[in-house]
Amino acid sequence: MTDTLAERWRAARPKPAGVHLDSGACSRQGFAAIDAAAQHARHEAEVGGYVALEAAAPVLDAGRAAVAALTGLAATDVVYTTGANHALNLLLNSWAGERSVACLPGEYGPNLALMALNGFRVSPLPVDEHGRLRVDAAADALRRDRPGLVHLTPLGSHRGLAQPLGPLAEICRDLGLPLVVDAAQALGHLDCAVAPAAIYSSSRKWLAGPRGVGVLAVRPDLIEALRPRFPPSEPAAPLTVLQQLAHGESNAAAHVGFSVAIGEHLAAGQAAVRARLAEVGRQTRTAMADVAGWRVVEPVDEPTAITTLEPTGGADPHRVRAWLIAERGIVTTACDARRAPTELTVPVLRLSPHVDVTPGDLELAAAALADAAAG
Ligand SMILES: *Cc1c(COP(=O)(O)O)cnc(C)c1O
């Protein structure tokens, strides 16, 4: 019981082949999630896929309950999707209200594309020089010009900045505006239990579940505003709106794996994980502060484990990423400007270690970056 959170997290999964600093793209799954998914696939082969699905109902319900605990919504508000983008598309595609949305100028590029595809007019929320939401100015702007919905990505893919989700949720509640939250990077990382009108996320990032899974939670009052565009269900058994959103073929084994992973997150303690991820971010930015040729974009104490490095001497993050993998076994992400087309001007290199990163790992990464510049 004296093991630290980091030691327990590391012991609960396969040994990394090198240094993994890439949880913002895809964390390393644990043995329990991997085994549960494999066990479900075996069970499908033994009793039949539809019978196995019925038998898995309790674990899938537990996964929904865990999402509810992290978002402030109810387990019955949650459906599984194939990812965060899929969840946003389901929501926007079903939107029966006015198709206008207010969001950060640094909004995730693929989200902006989905907003445009679904005919939403986009207006920018006011931000400071870091790209952080200016809360009072946002309240004024939303009161003056009411959009059909407000969308916030509390933690982006291109920059490890924690946005003020709680204060914006309060403003939206006061103004009676629906707040939709992209928690792909924020769930299991920042406090998201603000009971927004809708919230969606991805399994494979900070919750360390399998790929190809996401969740969407919609508060009952927002359900009224949705008209899913799906073929009519069988008249004998009309589906609820939420059931229509969840309709379609899906990977039950992956849902089972996700349910186990998010259960492990809750068992580790959400506050303890958040505190450790904030510490990891501080350690990472400190370790990278003096690496020649790169500038740390985030304030050192930003309470997230995402650190981005902007090249100051012409390095190409895509080439450096490939070099780090090939030569040193260090996995990072190169983020190009499409991730946040109106905020990111040059590609950046993203380091996103999970709770188990060691000072030694960070020293190796800093030294490798210096060598990459020299080589
Ligand atoms: C990764 C990411 C997404 C997309 O998630 P998928 O599950 O791959 O669809 C959406 N928003 C943000 C901020 C992300 O980082």
From TrEMBL:
Query: Per its UniProt record, what InterPro entries does this chain match?
Result: Aminotrans_V_dom, EgtE, PyrdxlP-dep_Trfase, PyrdxlP-dep_Trfase_major, PyrdxlP-dep_Trfase_small
One GO term of the biological process aspect:
ergothioneine biosynthetic process
Q: Which residues form the Aminotransferase class V domain?
A: 20-333
Q: In which pathway does it act?
A: Amino-acid biosynthesis; ergothioneine biosynthesis
* Catalyzed chemical reaction(s): S-(hercyn-2-yl)-L-cysteine S-oxide + AH2 + H(+) = ergothioneine + pyruvate + A + NH4(+)
Q: Which domain of life is it from?
A: Bacteria
The UniProt entry, under Pfam families, shows: Aminotran_5 (PF00266)
- EC assignment: the record states 4.4.-.-
Q: Which cofactor does it need?
A: pyridoxal 5'-phosphate
Record key words, sorted: Lyase, Pyridoxal phosphate
* The keyword Cell wall biogenesis/degradation belongs to this UniProt entry's keyword annotation: no
Q: What class of enzyme is it?
A: lyase
Record's keyword annotation contains Lyase: yes
| N6-(pyridoxal phosphate)lysine sites (modified residues) | K205
Which GO molecular function annotations are given, in alphabetical order?
A: carbon-sulfur lyase activity
Which function does this protein serve? Probably catalyzes the conversion of hercynylcysteine sulfoxide to ergothioneine.
Q: Which family does it belong to?
A: Belongs to the class-V pyridoxal-phosphate-dependent aminotransferase family. EgtE subfamily.
- Name it: Probable hercynylcysteine sulfoxide lyase
